[in-house]
Amino acid sequence: MENPPSPLQLVHDQIARACKVARREVSDVTLVAVSKTHPAEAIVPLLDQGQRVFGENRVQEAQAKWPALRERCPGVQLHLVGQLQSNKAEDAVALFDCIHSLDRPSLVTALAKACDKVGRQVPCFVQVDIGEEAQKGGCPIAELPALLKQVRDADIPLAGLMCVPPFGIEPAPFFALLDKLAGDNGLEGRSMGMSSDYETAIMLGATHVRVGTALFGGRE
Ligand SMILES: *Cc1c(COP(=O)(O)O)cnc(C)c1O
């Protein structure tokens, strides 16, 4: 008998299916494997299967885990998907290849300074408070144009927009809104969709899906 497909293979299959329905190219969707809380032993099998883009939500945890994994696998791209404190901006810029959680003017200032100091330009998604839930972080929709202008003026490479829709209700309208906001602001990237809804997100234009549980199993 053949081996059952791995979780990574299953996620790839679902991504391919959603792309087919949406008449999109699989190569236009980046799978960010969110490995937060999971140890190196859980990450190595994905590296061995060819996965190269990973997401973490805490700077310190990523600093502890990733240098050794990167040594083993130099092509890895590390994305920060969690909220970032301004005082960690320099560490974040030194470690991550992309930041998905730029959401306020003070953080733009801190990141611009950190990029200068470290000598690295790190592409950033601006996180939008798509469901008007201030505690989740994210820029209020009304303040988005001003924040985007500030990011552009600071010469921070703008990757696109990111959102985490409210928990427990149908996410599609929020994905559609993020897609529209990205289009209205001339942005390509849409970081949206997690384990429970990445196929819907792809059908509504996601370019980056952030998938943890479906790849690694549950977290404590
Ligand atoms: C943890 C996390 C994910 C992954 O969530 P799953 O439901 O485990 O796929 C995606 N995005 C962000 C911002 C996260 O914090």
Question: What would your notes on this structure say?
Answer:
This protein has an eight-stranded parallel β-sheet with strand order 7-6-5-4-3-2-1-8. It starts with 6 loop residues before the first helix and ends with a helix. The protein contains nine helices and eight strands. Helix 4 packs across helix 5. Helix content is 42%, strand content 15%. With 220 residues, the chain is an alpha/beta fold. The chain has a single domain, classed as Alanine racemase (TIM Barrel, Alpha-Beta Barrel). Bound molecules: pyridoxal-5'-phosphate. The site of pyridoxal-5'-phosphate (PLP) has 13 residues, from strand 8 and helix 9. Pyridoxal-5'-phosphate binds next to strand 8 and helix 9.
Keywords for this structure?
single chain, 220 residues, alpha/beta, TIM Barrel, 8-stranded parallel beta sheet, 15% strand, binds pyridoxal-5'-phosphate
Write the layout of secondary structure elements.
Blueprint: H1 7-22, E1 30-34, H2 40-48, E2 53-56, H3 59-72, E3 77-80, H4 89-95, E4 98-102, H5 105-118, E5 124-127, H6 144-153, E6 158-162, H7 172-184, E7 189-191, H8 198-203, E8 208-211, H9 213-216
Parallel strand pairs: 1-2, 1-8, 2-3, 3-4, 4-5, 5-6, 6-7
